[in-house]
Amino acid sequence: SRRKRQPALLPSLFPGVPAALNFAAEGEFLEPASSPVLERTRRQLLKWRLSPATPGVVRRVVARSGFKFLPKSDEWLGYFGRHMKPAEFSAIREYQKVNHFPGSFTLGRKDRLWQGLRRFRVKYGDFFDIAPATYCLPDDLLALRQAWEAAASNLDTSISAASASSVSSTSSFSSGSASDANLDCSGSPMWILKPPASCRGQGIRLLNKWHQVPKRRSALIQEYINRPYLIDGNKFDLRVYVYVTSFDPLRAYVHELGLVRFASSQYDASDPGNRFAHLTNYSVNKHSRTYRPSQQDGSGHKWSLQALWTRLRSEGRNPLAVWESVKLVVLKALLSGQAHIANQVRLLCRRSCCAHELFGFDILLDEDLRPWLLEVNVSPSLNTDTQLDNRIKDAVIADALRLAGFRLPPGAQDPELSSFDSDDYDSDEGGSGGKEKSPAGPAAELDIGLPPTGRPSTSGAPRTVAAAPPSSPSHSSSRLADDERAKRAFFCAPSWRRRLPRLLDGPLTPRDLRCLTRAVDEYQRRGGFERLAPAGGDLGLRCLSCCGGRPSYSSLLLHAFVSRYGHAGKEGINLLVAGCRAGLHMTSDTTDRQLWSPPAGLR
C-alpha cells in the first residue's frame, strides 16, 4: 500500500508514436495497461535474456517491471551482461537492446582513453586537458624518462608541459641525462602505475623510484595528483553514472545520484606504500582495518554525491560550480571516443537504438576543486552491499531503462504498442546500419552462441538467431528521397557553420521528424538524469567542431533544435506535434515528393 503507482506504459508526446515501456524502481509498482487485451499482450511479450553477469539490482528492477527471465530463448527484448563480440551485434533484432556499444572499450580501456584524449588535446588544445599526464609503456618510455628527469632536477617546468614537449621525440637519451641511480635517490614526485585493462584497483601501485618502472611490459604511468581535496584528512573520488543512448547523434546523460568513495587511511604523501591512503576503490578499502561502513549518508567511507555537496556548502564552497565542471569533463571524454564508437555501431548494428550503455566515470577533485578524469568503466560495479548502494544504483538502473525506450516487437496488434522505427542513421553515407537485411544474408549464418573457435561461449552474451527484416522497410532503407538527400548535403557542406542557424527554417523531412521526436520523448523520460548532449549554444557548437571531421546531419539537426527551442520547449513540441498529426513521421523516405529547398539567401 505504500508503494507508488506508476503507469505500465510511458506515452509519447506526439500522436502516432507508440509508448515506451516503463520500469519500476524500488518502492514503485506498475499499474496494468489501459485495457485487459493490451495488458495481456504486454505481459506475453515482456521477456528478458538472463545472463550470469546480470547484476542483482538489474534483475530486481526488471522483475519488478513484469518481465520473465529466459536463459535460452531468442525472443527477448533486453539484455544486460558482459560485452559482446563484434560479430554478435549484427544479428540483434531491431526491437532488442543490449547494454554495450561496440567499440566502447575506446573509453573503457585506460590506454585507449588516454590515447584518444592526447590526440584531441594536440588537435584542439587545452579544452581537452581533463586527465593527468599519462604515458603508455613501453612506447612512451623515453617521454616518461624526460619528464621524470625534469621533475627530479627541480625544474620550474611542470611535468605535463614536459610531456607535451617530449611526447613526439624519438631521439636517444642525451649524454647529460641523469643516471638511474640519481633518479632513484632524487626527490622525484610520485607517479602511479596502472595496468591498461584492469579494474577494482587491481595492479595499481605508487612509484617514486625509476627502477620501479616496468621497461618492457604494457603499463600506464600517470602523473600522481599529490594535492587532492581532503575531507577530514582523507582522500576521495567520485563515481559518476553516465548513460548514453546514442553516439551519432550523441545523446548522453549524467545522473544526479552518485557515490563518493573515501580512502580508509589518512592521506600521507610521504608514504607511497600505504594503498589504503592513496587508493579510493571500495574493493580495496573494504579490506582495511580502519574502513568504516556508512551507518548514515555523510558518515563512514562511502557517501552520496548529495552528502558531499552538503559538506562543501558548509565549508563555503560552491557545489553547483563543481558539478558543472564535472559534467564538462564527462562530455569532453565522450567526445574523444564518439567518432570511433559511432563508426562501429554503423558497421555492426542493424539499428543504432539496439545498443545503449551505462558508464561509471571516476573523477578526482584536487585542492582547488578542479575535477580530473581518472578512468571510465564500461561495466561499473552494481553490487549493493549497503543500503546506500542499493538506493542509488536501483534508481540509476530504473531511470536508465526508462530512458532506453524499450518497445514491444512487431506482432503486438494494438496500435499503442505497434513497432515504430524512429532510428536516424545517416544511412546515405553507407554502412550496415539502417539497411534492410535479408534473412538469407550473412547474419543468417551466424551462431551467436559460438565464438570463432567453435567452443561454447562463456561470455554470457545473448544467443540470437538471424535478424528478421526490419518492420518498416521504407523507414530503414538506405535510399533517401531526393529532397532529403539534398538537405543533408546542403547543411553538411564545408560551410556548415554559416548554414546551421537556418537548418530549421524550412519544412521538416520525415527523418527530421523521427529524429527530433525520439530525442524529445527521451528527454521527457530522463528521471534523475541530466542531459549532457546534445548541447545548444556556444558549447554545442564547440562540441560539433570537435567531432573529428564534419559533424553528421543528425547532430546538426539536434543542435539547431536545442539552440532554438531548448530540449523540450513548448514551441518546439508544438512544431513536432503538427508534423505528426499530418502523418509526416510515417511517410516513406523514398516517396516521390519535394518538401525542402535551400533557404532564401543561402548558397
Automatic annotation (TrEMBL):
<feature type="region of interest" description="Disordered">
    <location>
        <begin position="409"/>
        <end position="482"/>
    </location>
</feature>
<protein>
    <submittedName>
        <fullName>Tubulin--tyrosine ligase-like protein 9</fullName>
    </submittedName>
</protein>
<feature type="compositionally biased region" description="Low complexity">
    <location>
        <begin position="466"/>
        <end position="478"/>
    </location>
</feature>
<dbReference type="InterPro" id="IPR004344">
    <property type="entry name" value="TTL/TTLL_fam"/>
</dbReference>
<dbReference type="Pfam" id="PF03133">
    <property type="entry name" value="TTL"/>
</dbReference>
<dbReference type="GO" id="GO:0000226">
    <property type="term" value="P:microtubule cytoskeleton organization"/>
</dbReference>
<keyword id="KW-0547">Nucleotide-binding</keyword>
<dbReference type="GO" id="GO:0015631">
    <property type="term" value="F:tubulin binding"/>
</dbReference>
<dbReference type="GO" id="GO:0070740">
    <property type="term" value="F:tubulin-glutamic acid ligase activity"/>
</dbReference>
<keyword id="KW-0067">ATP-binding</keyword>
<dbReference type="GO" id="GO:0036064">
    <property type="term" value="C:ciliary basal body"/>
</dbReference>
<dbReference type="GO" id="GO:0005524">
    <property type="term" value="F:ATP binding"/>
</dbReference>
<keyword id="KW-0436">Ligase</keyword>
